[in-house]
């Protein structure tokens, strides 16, 4: 996934932006899964990305799932039809959604594959991504503890006219009743703007 | 011993020295001897003292040692005594032990003797037992022989029995086959019996029919007699028919006349009604005429009045037109009023604006006046100063002139000239300043004049606007005398209401937008624009699927284990291996299937029997009904019943009834029923009783038959 950036480091194209955003999701989701303990900690390995020590999974099944989703997401980002990417965390037994990490994607639709690259350096973008991932890591402190075994799922909000591809299916929004929302930081590649947000179920007695 | 003082002397004068030394040595030897003796003495004294000391020491030690030795001795004595005591004790023990040993030896000997006795006894017993065993062996052999015989006998019996059993089995099979055959026959017989019963019923019917036919034959015989009588009558029939046709024609004529009559009657009643209505109409007409005349008179009067005044409309239609015009005019006036109100509003606003302007202008004017005053004061002051300066200048000139006069010859001329020049320059400067001030004054005066002009203009404008306002107000009041204030208030109210509504709506809009944003935060979406998709093989779905599969598996396992537990409980622990359990479960299942099949067969058989019984019962019931009521009741279709009387003259004389949804019975018309019209009328139409009708029919038919007989 990593390292396929555009040749000039101070400008960015639509393709490059999609690549960067998808890469952020890959590492961000990996980090999220580690931080929230959805998969056991020993199945993660350390790697340095965005000048941060991040953890990525070594579970082959999860890896193939994430990479295939990211490939598809990249394609849709190039088509500029993605509105949101949502990571839901639900209990394994009752399928009750406990956490919902929502990443709103605003796309500058005036940018096409043929237009001139925008001026934005990679280090600047990486700084933004770093801040978002740091905040996600820090938000573990205020989120309620996940007491039961949990599973995660990825929902992608797209435009209505998209033909659902094979292996994909339509789904509900997996909303949480009695939730508390917290807005997180956002970053932009000057073509795609990603607003992060988390909503979580209010536990009894809180 | 002293050493020689000078060595050189020794070398040079050895001889002297030897001599000297010889003398000296002797002397010295003697001295030495004495000294040695003294020394020896001293040492001896010391030694003696030492020895004495040692002796005393030894003595003390000796004493000490003796004391210690005494103590030791005492201790040893004590120990010895203790030991002697111990020894005596031990001796006592030894004696006791010896005694004990002797006793034990004695016991041992006794035991040995007893054991020897016992051994002898046991040997005897063993010999006895051997003998017994020999006897038993022999007996056993005998028994074996005898049992072999019996076994062979029993096996023979068994083979015989087997053969018998086989025979019996074959017999049984034969019997079962026979039984089946018999059962089949029995079923056949039952069916035959049913058939026989049916035949019997048919036979009864047939007998009945025969009776009927016999009756008919008898009746026909009678009728033949009657027929002969009738034949003679028949000849008369031709005439009668002619008469009949004539009568029929007459009858038809009468009927027509009757119908005409009724028609005429109806017409008459209609005409009477018409007449009544016409009379009413005529009375109404008269009333209307009166009214009309009255109205005409009124109209005439009105016209005459209108003729006097040309402005009045000459006719109601004109009046209507005029009213319409007036209404239109009112509408246009209303529009005008609206326009005027708008203009008034704008004028008012303009008026307010001009008022504001006027105020500011007045303020400016006041300011300007003040400035003007100040300027005037300044001018006065400056003039005063100018006067003073001119006076001063005149004074100075006089002084200068006097100086000039005084100092015409002196050398002060230059100085005076310079002073004069300076003074003149000063004066010029003053002049210039004065001029400047004058110019400023003129300028300010001009400005003040300008402002005054403006103020005047504004005042004029104000007056003009005031005039306009009053005019418009007057015009408005003229146009809508009184209604304006109310409508104004209404309009104001309405405006206020609308403003409030607008506010409310704005608030609502805001809250809704907030709500929308919040729901978007929660992840809600617009389904017309957005759709949510997810990878079908996502981890959550997979976990769910796995869970489902596991649950299914566990359920199946639980089921098998339950069965196993049941089997184990039944067999109470024997043969608990999984294979046997599985076999048992299979057996049980097949057994259960067999049981179910058996039950099915039984229930089918029961069903069949029940059917037979029902058929029989129904037949009986029908028969009983037929015998008791005299009617055979059939049910060819649902809700329809056909009744055939026992005494019916032909099998076609059927009464056909139909059951209505309300549960009532209706008689359907056919030939037979139409022949019974008097009974129908009497019992069904008036009496509403079907049983009475049926019994009357029965009685009728019965009486006929009996009469015929």
Stretches of chain A where pLDDT is under 50 for at least 5 consecutive residues are 1-8
Q: What is the top-level CATH class of the domain at 630-708 in chain B?
A: Alpha Beta
Q: CATH topology of the domain at 630-708 in chain B, which one?
A: Copper Amine Oxidase, Chain A, domain 1
Q: What's the total number of strands of chain B?
A: 5
Q: Order of strands across the widest beta sheet of chain B?
A: 2-3-4-5
Query: Would you identify the CATH architecture of the domain at 630-708 in chain B?
Result: 2-Layer Sandwich
Total number of helical segments of chain A? 3
Q: In terms of quaternary structure, what is this?
A: heterodimer
List the helices and strands and how they pair.
The complex is a heterodimer of chains A (206) and B (709).
Chain A: E1 11-12, H1 14-35, E2 44-49, E3 52-57, H2 60-79, E4 82-91, E5 97-107, E6 118-119, H3 122-138, E7 150-159, E8 168-170, E9 179-188, E10 192-201
Antiparallel strand pairs in A: 1-6, 2-3, 4-5, 4-7, 5-10, 9-10
Helix pairs in contact in A: 1-2, 1-3
Chain B: H1 7-12, H2 14-308, H3 316-406, H4 413-479, H5 483-522, E1 530-535, H6 539-571, H7 578-629, E2 631-634, E3 640-645, E4 654-659, E5 665-668, H8 671-675, H9 677-686, H10 690-708
Helix pairs in contact in B: 3-4, 6-7, 9-10
Family (chain A): Belongs to the MAD2 family.
Main location (chain A): nucleus
Domain HORMA (chain A): 15-198
């Amino acid at each position: 996934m990593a390292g396929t950036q555009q040749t000039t480091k101070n400008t960015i194209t639509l393709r490059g932006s999609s690549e960067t955003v998808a890469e952020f999701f890959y590492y961000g989701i990996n980090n999220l899964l580690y931080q929230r303990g959805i998969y056991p900690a020993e199945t993660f390995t350390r790697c340095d990305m965005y000048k941060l020590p991040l953890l990525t999974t070594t579970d082959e099944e999860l890896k193939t799932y994430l990479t295939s989703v990211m490939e598809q997401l990249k394609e849709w980002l190039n088509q500029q039809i993605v509105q949101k990417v949502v990571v839901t965390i639900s209990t394994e037994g009752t399928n009750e959604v406990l956490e919902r990490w929502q990443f709103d994607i605003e796309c500058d639709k005036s940018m096409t594959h043929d237009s001139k690259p925008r001026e934005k350096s990679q280090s600047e973008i990486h700084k933004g991504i770093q801040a978002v991932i740091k905040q996600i890591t820090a938000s573990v402190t205020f989120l309620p503890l996940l007491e039961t075994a949990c599973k995660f799922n990825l929902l992608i909000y797209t435009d209505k006219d998209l033909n659902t591809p094979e292996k994909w299916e339509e789904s509900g929004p997996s909303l949480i009743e009695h939730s508390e929302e917290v807005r997180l930081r956002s970053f932009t590649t000057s073509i795609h703007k990603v607003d992060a947000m988390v909503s979580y179920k209010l536990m009894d007695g809180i | 011993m002293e050493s020689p003082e000078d060595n050189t002397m020794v070398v040079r004068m050895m001889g002297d020295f030897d001599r000297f030394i010889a003398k000296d040595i002797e002397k010295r030897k003697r001295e030495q001897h004495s000294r040695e003796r003294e020394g020896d003495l001293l040492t001896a004294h010391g030694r003696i003292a030492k020895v004495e000391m040692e002796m005393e020491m030894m003595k003390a030690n000796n004493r000490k040692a003796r004391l210690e030795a005494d103590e030791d001795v005492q201790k040893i004595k004590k120990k010895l005594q203790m030991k002697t005591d111990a020894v005596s004790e031990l001796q006592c023990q030894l004696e006791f032990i010896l005694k004990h040993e002797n006793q034990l030896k004695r016991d041992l000997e006794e035991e040995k003797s007893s054991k020897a006795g016992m051994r002898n006894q046991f040997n005897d017993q063993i010999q006895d037992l051997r003998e017994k065993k020999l006897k038993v062996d022999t007996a056993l052999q005998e028994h074996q022989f005898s049992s072999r015989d019996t076994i062979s006998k029993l096996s023979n019996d068994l083979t015989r029995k087997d053969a018998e059993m086989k025979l019996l089995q074959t017999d049984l099979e034969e019997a079962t086959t026979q039984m089946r055959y018999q059962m089949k026959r029995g079923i056949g017989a039952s069916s035959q019996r049913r058939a026989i019963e049916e035949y019997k019923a048919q036979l009864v019917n047939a007998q009945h029919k025969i009776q009927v036919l016999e009756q008919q034959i008898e009746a026909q015989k009678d009728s033949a007699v009657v027929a002969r009588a009738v034949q003679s009558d028949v000849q008369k029939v031709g005439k009668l028919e002619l008469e009949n046709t004539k009568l029929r024609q007459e009858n038809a004529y009468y009927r027509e006349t009757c119908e005409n009559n009724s028609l005429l009657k109806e017409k008459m009643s209609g005409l009477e009604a018409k007449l009544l209505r016409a009379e009413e109409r005529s009375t109404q007409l008269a009333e209307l005429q009166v009214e009309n005349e009255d109205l005409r008179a009124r109209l005439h009067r009105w016209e005459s009045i209108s003729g006097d005044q040309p402005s009045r409309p000459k006719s109601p239609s004109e009046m209507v037109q005029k009213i319409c015009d007036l209404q239109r005019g009112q509408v246009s006036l209303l529009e005008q009023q609206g326009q005027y109100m708008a203009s008034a509003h704008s004028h008012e606003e303009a008026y307010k604006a001009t008022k504001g302007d006027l105020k500011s202008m007045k303020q400016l004017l006041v300011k300007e006046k003040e400035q003007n005053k100040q300027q005037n004061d300044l001018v006065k002051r400056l003039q005063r100063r100018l006067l003073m300066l001119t006076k001063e200048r005149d004074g100075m000139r006089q002084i200068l002139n006097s100086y000039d006069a005084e100092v015409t010859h002196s050398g002060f001329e230059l100085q005076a000239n310079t002073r004069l020049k300076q003074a003149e320059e000063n004066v010029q400067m003053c002049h210039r300043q004065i001029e400047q001030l004058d110019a400023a004054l003129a300028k300010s005066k001009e400005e003040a004049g300008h402002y005054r002009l403006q103020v005047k203009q504004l005042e004029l404008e104000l007056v003009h606007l005031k005039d306009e306002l009053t005019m418009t107000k007057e015009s408005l009041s003229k146009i809508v005398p009184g209604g304006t204030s109310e409508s104004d208030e209404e309009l104001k109210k309405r405006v206020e209401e609308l403003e409030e509504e607008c506010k409310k709506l704005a608030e609502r809009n805001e809250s809704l937008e907030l709500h929308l944003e919040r729901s978007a935060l929660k992840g809600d979406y617009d389904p017309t624009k957005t759709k949510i998709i997810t990878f079908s093989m996502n981890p959550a779905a997979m976990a769910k699927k796995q869970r489902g599969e596991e649950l299914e598996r566990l359920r199946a396992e639980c089921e098998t284990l339950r069965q196993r537990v049941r089997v184990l409980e039944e067999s109470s622990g024997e043969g608990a291996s999984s294979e046997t359990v599985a076999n048992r479960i299979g057996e049980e299942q097949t057994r259960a299937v067999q049981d179910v099949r058996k039950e099915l067969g039984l229930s089918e058989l029961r069903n069949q029997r029940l059917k037979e019984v029902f058929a029989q019962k129904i037949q009986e019931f029908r028969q009983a009904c037929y015998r008791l009521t005299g009617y055979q009741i059939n049910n060819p279709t649902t809700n329809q019943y056909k009744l055939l009387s026992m005494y019916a003259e032909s099998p076609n004389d059927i009464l056909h009834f139909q059951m209505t949804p309300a549960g009532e019975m209706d008689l359907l018309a056919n030939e037979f029923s139409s022949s019974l019209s008097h009974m129908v009328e009497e019992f069904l139409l008036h009496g509403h009783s079907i049983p009475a009708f049926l019994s009357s029919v029965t009685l009728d038919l019965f009486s006929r038959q009996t009469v015929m007989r």
